[in-house]
Amino acid sequence: DGEAAKLSENGFQFLLMETNAQLWYIMREYISSAEERGVDPTDLISFLLELSFHTQGAAYSLSTLTEVQRVAIMDLMELGLVKLQQVKL
């Protein structure tokens, strides 16, 4: 529309938060909007808890994930919270 993007007061307050508080805010919003996306919040929370027990930096196969879990992984990748890597055979 030719308009410049503007930072709202809420956006500014978000930027002033500590990094860990920003992350919790994003995850809380992601979980609370799950039903709107047709995802059972219980399944999503269960998967996020499962992810928290994985070893940081270790590769895991996506082939065993459900569709909901794959979508969550892609969302987390777009947020920069998960890194996908190609496995060399």
TrEMBL record:
Family: Belongs to the TFB2 family.
GO terms, biological process: nucleotide-excision repair
Predominant subcellular localization, coarse grouping: nucleus
PANTHER family the record matches: GENERAL TRANSCRIPTION FACTOR IIH SUBUNIT 4, TFIIH, POLYPEPTIDE 4
Organism expressing this protein natively: Aegilops tauschii subsp. strangulata (Goatgrass)
UniProt subcellular location: Nucleus
This protein's name: RNA polymerase II transcription factor B subunit 2
InterPro entries: TFIIH_p52/Tfb2
Molecular-function GO terms, alphabetical: ATPase activator activity; double-stranded DNA binding
Entry function: Component of the general transcription and DNA repair factor IIH (TFIIH) core complex which is involved in general and transcription-coupled nucleotide excision repair (NER) of damaged DNA.
Pfam families reported in the protein's UniProt record: Tfb2
Origin superkingdom: Eukaryota
Keyword annotations of the record: DNA damage, DNA repair, Nucleus, Transcription, Transcription regulation
Record-level GO cellular component terms: transcription factor TFIIH core complex; transcription factor TFIIH holo complex
